[in-house]
């Protein structure tokens, strides 16, 4: 199929192609403009060879109508469907007109670096929420993988391409016989690998593979050989998170998530969760239980214990403040112990006075009176000089 160039008109000018967004084995995705509503849209044009099969076009239309009825915030909305004549082959090319998600796919996000645990759990939970809505209406996705999960710039997660895998798988063209649709073998459930019937439990398995990859940074099964990889999905047990190098999680959380993965990645569909809603509930319960068993210390307490108590510093006072406060301090000291000090001081002079008076009295009464007068004058002078110094 020749690519549609910028300006290609669809639906009589309702949609105008602006640029190519991505290419795949089954389809090419374009950014286009909805001229009637003046909004950007995404147009997924299927492979021209698929369009040659009238039965595929009928199934494609039926699946698109079913998905359009989901109306869930975590599912990419389908606005319209149509057919366009391929200029290179004159074949009718079926296409979907979908909600344009301004962001990137989960696969592109993974290429930028590993996801944190919280981000991985949030994305998985929202994917399961979208799948739960489709399972409730009997729609099985069949091709859940990071490339089919869109992440908008505001953080919203949306699952796309519902029903397309089913329409392709039921087509009798050689595309389904030559392995072109086996690009998602790393996420394929055992029953798909063996050509068995699929159900909501099939989507549970693929989400389990994706969750394992988001938490560990690697796929549970990987091999360059498609037959070998299919064999591993069917027969080999998946590695544990610990064996895959996940050592940054607390043991209670690691054990809780491992329990969810063990059931989601069970070989037999009967041993898995019944649908996406059941797996989502189990994942939320595991996260809550694991967090409850993990000891935590409040950050405020750690900071309070680690930070030393600041030393108490005496207030810095100016010389003028010291002069103003000194008399008050002396008065307080005098109030507390001044009376005792006064008595001590008087007692000393009293002893000197009595001694001088006694000596002078026995030698001469006149000298005794003179000595007493001198002692009283000296006592008064000492008291006056002391007050001036203070």
Would you give an account of this structure?
The chain is elongated. By secondary structure, the protein is an alpha+beta fold. It has helices at residues 48-51, 54-68, 106-111, 117-136, 164-169, 190-193, 200-216, 226-235, 251-264, 276-293, 299-306, 319-363, 365-389, and strands at residues 9-10, 15-23, 27-34, 39-46, 78-85, 92-99, 103-105, 149-152, 157-159. α9 runs antiparallel to α10. The chain starts with 8 loop residues before the first strand and ends with a helix.
In short:
The protein has 390 residues and is α+β, with helices and mostly antiparallel strands. 49% of the residues lie in helices and 14% in strands.
Q: Give helix % range.
A: 40-55%
User: SSE order, as H and E?
Assistant: EEEEHHEEEHHEEHHHHHHHHH
Strand content: 5-15%
Integer tally of domains = 3
Sheet with most strands: strand arrangement: 1-2-3-4-6-5
| Name of the CATH homologous superfamily of the largest domain | Transferase(Phosphotransferase) domain 1
Alpha carbon gap, first and last residue: 109 Å
The CATH architecture of the largest domain comes to Orthogonal Bundle
Q: Give the structural class.
A: alpha+beta
**CATH-assigned fold name of the largest domain:** Transferase(Phosphotransferase), domain 1
Number of helices: 13
Radius of gyration: 45 Å
**Rough shape?**
elongated
The chain-level mean pLDDT equals 80
CATH class of the largest domain: Mainly Alpha
Largest sheet: 6 strands, antiparallel
Query: Low-confidence stretches at least 5 residues in length (pLDDT < 50)?
Result: 172-183, 296-310, 328-344
Q: Report the count of strand segments.
A: 9
